[in-house]
Design a protein that fits this description.
heterotrimer; A alpha+beta; B mainly alpha; C alpha+beta; C: alpha+beta; 2 domains; 4-stranded antiparallel sheet; about 45% helix
Chain lengths: ~290, ~450, ~180
Amino acid sequence: MSVSNLLENWSQFRHYHPVDDKPHDPYKWAMSIDLDACVGCNACSVACYAENNLPVVGKEKYAHGMSMHWMRIEHYWDEDVGEEGGREFPDQGAQFLPMMCQQCEAAPCETVCPVGATNHTADGLNSQIYNRCVGSRYCEANCPYKVRYFNWYDYPTTDNVWPAEMTQQLNPDVTVRGKGVMEKCTFCVQRLSAAKVTAKSEGRIVHDGEVQTACQQVCPVGAISFGNLIDPQSRVHKQWRAQQVELDKDRQAKDEKEGGTNLRGYRILENMRPYPSVMYLERVRESAI
Amino acid sequence: MKDIREDIAWAKINQDVLKSLENPRKLYWVILFVAIAMVGVAVGCEIYQYSTGMGVSNKNNSHVWGLYIATFIFWIGMSHSGTLLSAILHLMHADWRKPIYRFAEAMTTFSLMTAGLFVAVHLGRVWQIYYALPYPNERGLWPNFQSPLLWDAMAIFTYLSSSIVFLYVGMIPDLAICRDRMHEGWRKKLYTLLSLGWEGTDRQWRNFRVTYLTIACFLIPLAVSVHSIVASDFAMSQQPGWHITSFPPYFVAGALYSGCAAIITLFIILRYVFRFEEYMTMGILKKIVRLTFAISMVWTYLNAVEFASVWYSHDQASKDVLIQKAIGTYAPFWWGMMFCGSVVPLTLAFKRFQTNIPVLFAVSLLLNLGMWLERWMIVAPTFAHGIYPWAWDHDQWPSFVQWGMVFGSFGWFTLLFMVFCKVFPSVSMYEVKEMVYHRRQETKKLEATGKFATAGKGAH
Amino acid sequence: MSKRHLLALFSNFDAAEAVVKELRDVRINGFDADKDMIVKSPIEHPEVEEFLGYKPVHVQWFTLGGALMGGLLGFFLISGAQANFYAQIKGGKPIVPFPPNFVLTYEMFILGGVFISVLGFLICAGLPARRSPLYSTKVSEDQIGILVKSDENAANTLKAIFAKHNALEIQEEAGK
């Protein structure tokens, strides 16, 4: 708590904010999801359950809205699909939307946690620290995407969540959360940490494709790309650049152009300025071709 | 109708008020027992929730806040009564507050104590609530000072401690009176200890007057800031229905409203129970009633401002939330709130009802019901129909656990208040004496100048 | 000569005022109206200040000091906590953000002001006070008391003054 610390670290910390000249160094984890490729198979959701020790809450609690799916597939239907005289197939808009924590650069959840259990890491993730969480649930109240999930019961001790031998399946790299804690997608931070450690011991940074999130790994159509946004060789960097989506803008320059553009890339609720790190590639619409 | 008779003997004031400290009648014990039973219900609910998990409150993901936050804000709101009377009216030299501010100030203190409990029961991991305190630790971790919930913690701590201090300091001369009049026993020891050897010397009174005024000057911005901070829990978020700049003044107006209504309720009860008709007069009741009416109109106006600003905005999400409030799942409660908060107080505009005790009692309870509903209707509809379509239709009804805690909180408040009324004088004796004295001086002056016929101050 | 206390009780402020005026004017050995006389009353009465003479009240200096100290302490404590080695970025906001810090500084300002004022009150008013050797419970009820300390031989003069202004009761300290 010294002034010298403050001064010394100030310039370094100042650069963490995305709107500065040097946003992140050397990692900024980002993702892009191709909604045209996504078939809504839910494999990513299941993989997330397996990788991150998510509790399966059961039919009754799920119906009550207490599900814990960090990665969820949202279904959106157009109004007249399936109705009498309507279209047979949906034509406009995303049909399946995989939604998880957008790891916002200016996350609304971070400012409101009374005990500071959620913060921003140097590599651009929104961290959730289970030990510190007292369960005020303000972060979920403030999240525009509602991607945070609260442990309403003590799932490790609840029947039928992880019956007998299923506990063997739990990932030892990830905590099993008790009751009263908030949790959310972490971009499989345990994998990231392991990869960074390996890379550091070899004196380099993590290569593109060396680390994959669980959802990315199982997606049968390769809709999810994940990687280091700063690394110009990474697939995710190239995608963001091709789609002309910039991390630190709340309105992209391409959207200002007359007549719009054919570029499919967008971020959800961008105008609320959380600066999310996930870009979605819009579904190709028949009417647009 | 006078606020107080000018010819009440000071000795009689002492006598009447000290009579309220006598051993209570049987009914008191019955009601106290009921209050304790209510607290027991809440404690049972909390034990169940603590051991099983917050899920028993029937909340769910995306609809993560419920009655705990709503009732918390309700109790904080009710606490503005004392400050209004003690501090604001003191600065305005409205001496009709003198017979009634003591119990209002007590009400403030106990409301805050009750509100604090709700913060605790709201947390998923109550046993770690101390993480919110700024204490040095080996991890170098401090609470997040950017969070409005943490501002709440600090503001309420400040407000509670200042209120207790203010109540106590203001009571010192009265405690001296109790000390002088009580027989030997635990009471005399208590009063002797608490009155700090007060003897009413000129030095003591001079400093007392200045201190009281100074603290009153601080308490007013404190009260305004506390409820503005509580409003910031909502206003500082980005959620539709919450992200409204008029929330801080709206909440403060609602708090004053709640407090005034509660003052009317307790006024009627204390007046009847302790036979304080000489001091808690109809004249004073009328003034408080009129003040409540004025505040109710302010609250109604701020409500209208909120609706208008949402309606004329481009923010579709906020507009949808407003429409949902009116026609969605929670509509009956929302309309109930509008009725209790804006229509019911119109009865207070009629002279006939301004001194009709049964009507006023019912009206004051309805007003507070309206205020409680208001807090709930701020919390729930935004969760039920927020920005994100996936989260829509997350209607959620509180379980018996939540209702039990809300129910028990009233028992807790009643318990504290009843104990207070029997241990400490609920009417400020020295201030009533001052009031009588000054009224008499004025009457004398008017008599001397021959203007008595035109009716002096306080007569209607 | 040993000093003894006398306590006289009066039924209204006018009588007390007259007595005080006379006590000021009278010349008695060993009696100083400013130091050896204390007026006790059941209510505060700013007019008492007028006939007793203006005496400054220092509580507000305590208030000023306390409030400033509270505000500064609050601000630096919070900013220091935010700027420590494990500084955590939250919501893209600066490390030491002024809007939230202002809110808490304001609260601490008020907290400091209130508490130090009370402390100042206790110090300036001399509370907790040792009880006077002579006290009547009527002072807390409806009578005004004047406590004087004087030599034994002046006692009669003083008693005469009290009686002249219709003292309701005169208490005398027992001889030592």
